[in-house]
Automatic annotation (TrEMBL):
Cited PROSITE patterns: SPASE_I_1, SPASE_I_2, SPASE_I_3
Subcellular location: Cell membrane; Membrane
GO biological process: signal peptide processing
UniProt keyword terms in alphabetical order: Hydrolase, Protease
Enzyme class name: hydrolase
Organism whose genome encodes this protein: Bacillus canaveralius
Active site: 39, 80
SUPFAM superfamilies: LexA/Signal peptidase
Reactions it catalyzes: Cleavage of hydrophobic, N-terminal signal or leader sequences from secreted and periplasmic proteins
Protein name: Signal peptidase I
Main localization of the protein described in the UniProt heading: membrane
Length: 183
């Protein structure tokens, strides 16, 4: 009888430890997320399943062109690409991104740019036209979806406060035939 009690107790302890570890990993380090919509096409597809690295920005800041997950104003989590960092002047002219007056290439948009025949992929704008300021405010990010014509992003919801950023994501793990690291 004592042996059965000890075995039961050992299994219970192992199960509790496993549940606690899983909770810590999911809450503090990594979490799954499902891409909902077409705003990041062609880089990400609707219903792609990804891993969010919550640990990624504990000691550092996001870099330009990182794909991040953040809490959006509609109580949803959005997946977008970092375009402007704090202090940046962001502008689009003739389908070209300008940061602080310098043109930047966006190779992840090449496929879509070749398909567009009725105007630019990204309509021209200045940061001041979109958020009422010349530069991205300190502690905020300017983000955009890769599917520029069909993305609700900083052009519509404003800049994203750093405290709303959950982490970055670059691993698609499902569907299995699309497993990849995205750039």
């Amino acid at each position: 009888m004592t042996k059965q009690k000890n075995e039961f107790w050992e299994w219970t302890k192992a199960l509790l430890i496993a549940v606690a570890l899983a909770a810590v990993i999911r809450y503090f380090l990594f979490a799954p997320i499902v891409v909902d919509g077409l705003s990041m096409m062609p880089t990400l597809h609707d219903q792609d399943r990804m891993i969010v690295n919550k640990f990624s920005y504990q000691w550092g800041e996001p870099e330009r062109f990182d794909i991040i997950v953040f809490h959006a104003p509609e109580n949803k989590d959005y997946i977008k690409r970092v375009i402007g960092l704090p202090g940046d002047r962001v502008e689009y002219r003739e389908d070209t991104l300008y940061i602080n007056g310098e043109p930047y290439e966006e190779p992840y948009l090449d496929t879509y740019k070749q398909q567009v025949i009725d105007g630019p992929l990204t309509d021209p704008f200045t940061l001041e036209e979109k958020i009422g300021q010349e530069t991205v405010p300190e502690g905020h990010l300017f983000v955009m979806g890769d599917n520029r014509r069909f993305s609700k992003d900083s052009r519509h919801i404003g800049t994203v406060p750093m405290e709303k950023v959950l982490g970055n994501t670059d691993i698609v793990y499902w569907p299995i035939e699309d497993v990849r690291i995205v750039k």
